[in-house]
Design a protein that fits this description.
alpha/beta, 8 strands, 8-stranded mixed beta sheet
């Protein structure tokens, strides 16, 4: 049996995946393949370059605890103005994010990862969705996380690449194409219990993308559920944290860990594999106040 982990995008909500990974590793559930998009590519690269242990999940939690909006999306008036008047293709410099990724990757190239890592990106010129499995790891991950208009496209193997979430934020199809028989999906969900609308253009953009992403995941699960056993871990819901807010990583990790433990324990005592997709419905059925 080949087991794949599929990690979606979601910006700061990527902290949710850390709690999910902790719960999976506690139960010795480890991937043979990892497919990641955007922040899922960042988390995926971290765990792909290390042993699939609780200690690895804790180390990733430590990284998240040090992240702030000012680190990931630093304000730069000159860069922002150049982007606004059309003299630049991005609003935010990506140097800080590159430093964070470089510091915490234990392998230089995708093909050198102890666990096979596949990163989803979008080609700017053709609009095509691409899967990167070889080449410089930092460049590949940076490309997958290059939110269009926010970060600059990344040049990779002669192509200009941007965020894989534009074309496929939860790349189930790639896990199926890679031959996975069992697929654990680690979605980030979205802020479904806001008390006020997101403030600022960047906050609104990231929130809108996270809502769109959840809708596509529901469709893809229905499309591929007969090709492999698909297990969707439940993201915290309801939740009010926006994908631009990095100050609640600890809360998101703790909630996701608790929810994932309950879900995986329930699943271990069940003989109904199809029920493992049930949490996907929670991404759309928000009937709470």
């Amino acid at each position: 049996m080949t087991r794949a982990f599929v990690l979606s995008g979601g910006s700061s909500l990527g902290a949710i995946q850390v709690g999910m990974l902790h719960a999976l590793f506690e139960r010795d559930i480890a991937p043979d393949e990892i497919v990641g998009t955007s922040v899922g590519a960042i988390n995926g690269a971290f765990i792909a370059s290390r042993p699939p242990t609780v200690e690895t999940a804790v180390a990733l939690a430590d990284v998240w605890s040090g992240l702030r909006r000012s680190i990931v999306f630093p304000a730069n008036p000159l860069t922002g103005f150049a982007g606004f008047i059309g003299r630049s293709d991005h609003l935010v410099p990506n140097a800080n994010l590159r430093r964070v990724i470089t510091r915490h990757l234990d392998a230089d190239r995708l093909e050198d990862m102890p666990v096979a890592l596949h990163v989803i990106v979008t080609d700017v010129l053709s609009g095509r969705e691409l899967r990167l499995s070889r080449g410089p790891a930092v460049d590949a991950v940076m490309a997958s996380a290059a939110v269009p208009g926010v970060f600059a496209p990344v040049r990779f193997a002669g192509r200009q690449l941007i965020d894989g979430g534009v074309s496929d934020n939860t790349p189930l199809s790639h896990a199926v194409a890679l031959g996975a028989d069992e697929i654990y999906v680690l979605p980030t969900g979205y802020a479904c219990a806001l008390t006020e609308h997101p403030r600022g253009a960047l906050a609104m953009l990231l929130h809108a993308m996270s809502v769109m992403i959840a809708q596509r995941l529901h469709v893809e699960i229905a499309l591929y559920r007969t090709d492999a056993r698909i297990i969707v871990l439940p993201p915290p819901c309801p939740q009010h944290i926006q994908p631009i807010d990095f100050s609640h990583a600890g809360e998101l990790i703790a909630r996701a860990l608790d929810d994932s433990r309950v879900f995986l324990d329930w699943l271990a005592g069940s003989n109904r594999p199809a029920d493992a997709t049930a949490p996907a419905a929670r991404l759309l059925a928000h009937d709470h106040p």
